[in-house]
Structure formats: C-alpha cells, structure tokens
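Hello again, I could really use a second opinion on something today. For a while now I've been wondering how a particular protein folds. Please have a think about how the structure follows from the sequence. Here's the protein in full, and shout if anything looks odd to you:

***
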Amino acid sequence: MKTENTESIENTDSIIVDSTKKTPRVPVIEISNLYKSFGTLDVLKNLSLKLYESENLVVLGKSGSGKSVLIKCIVGLLPSDSGIINVFNQNVLKLNRSGIDEVRQKIGFLFQSGALYDSMTVKENLEFPLKRLKDHLNQKDIDAKIIEALENVGLPDVINKMPSQLSGGMRKRISLARTIVVDPKIILYDEPTTGLDPVTSDEISLLINEVQKKYKTSSIIITHDIECARLTADRLIMIQNGEVYKEGTLSSFEKSTDSVIKSFFK
C-alpha cells in the first residue's frame, strides 16, 4: 500500500504540501470546468482536478462515468466542448496542432489494450516512438534506451519476440516499456490491469510504482480495480455522472459511509 501524505487535503483548489519537505507541490495538470458531450449525452460536466509533480492520482468510477474520456481529452485525442486543460501551464484547448504535438511528447499514454503493433517485434515497437520523437538519437543510443526500458519492466529477453508470443501480462509490460522509453514527464494509464489475473495485476501495479520512483513521473491511473488503487494511489478521485464526486486519500475513501463509495470498497 502506498504511504499516504498526511498533509494532503481534499479541496481541489488547495495546494498539496509535501510533508517531508514542507514545500508546495507544483501541479503539472490543472483541469477546470471541463465539459464533454456526445450528442445529447453529457459525459463530463464541470469537472475540475489537479495532478501534482511525482504523484500517482487514481481516478475511480463506474463504466461510462467519463474516466477514459477525461484522459483522451487531456492529450487531445478527443476535443473538449469547453473548459481549461493546463498541461505544464499550457491550455491544450487553445493550442494548434504543432503545440499539441509538443505537449504530447511529454506525456506517455498506456492504452487499455496495450496497442502494440502486431506486425512488429518488441524491439521494433519500442524503436517506433524513439525514431519519431527522439530523431537526434543514433542507432546505438536507441538500442541502449530499448534495453534499459525492457530491463526496467523485467523483460530484456523478449526483445526479438512478436506480441503474439507474449502473455497478457507481458504485453502490458512491453506497452509500459514503450511508454517510458521516450522519457515522459506524465503517464496516463487507462485501465492498466484490465483482463489480467490477480497476481499479474498486482505485479503491474507495483511496476507502476517502480516507474514513478525511478523516472519521477506524475501519473493519472484510470481504474475500477480497487486493489490497483490501493497499491498505487497517492490520492484518489471518484467520478460520478461526469463530475468529481469525492477526492481524498485512500484512508478517507475506505472509511467513508457514503453508499456510492462503499459500493466500490466492499
């Protein structure tokens, strides 16, 4: 279980203080009054949240509550209707295509499916983003970064295998390796443990913590897996009907008498 920051507070307008250093933690993402609809269906309604430096923020909610839509809006994969999404003090809703591409280079996105290219080997899957985003690197540097990323997810020996030769848990690890190989400052995880057995799910959750510690990443983790939330969360937010229903520490969620919260933490 993650150690909770005893000085974190639940008001999204407040500055979170690092209890070990007594200094304000800087928000890397600030979302204010975000709206997103599909036709007459309002998916996100006046949603506001902050993600702080070196923090794992877990976002909980039922299927269809807008969790995945939220992180797709952050990187511009879906256009928002209105609101503000500041990433490193840039409002992505007002950026042109080149500006959005620049922001995306600082963000790693781990898709629920893993989204590996089936026709490419593991090495080629990791080479692809490096050659696109780090075009100043020579092949020797690229190979070194690939080996480092694979070692960090515990799978250096599968470098020449195809995705079809890997188990579900191994594919998740390779997808994470492909995410971290380009040195993102922020990682967005979309249901990272979906479809995995409990043991492998815990391994992926602990790997998320290892990546956070080693790379000092800030992460939003979309999940309905309560054990994943328990293992990874520095702070949690629950979305209900497109809005932030509750924000706080793991302890505050587990102790809540609210029926909606209790239905998740049985």
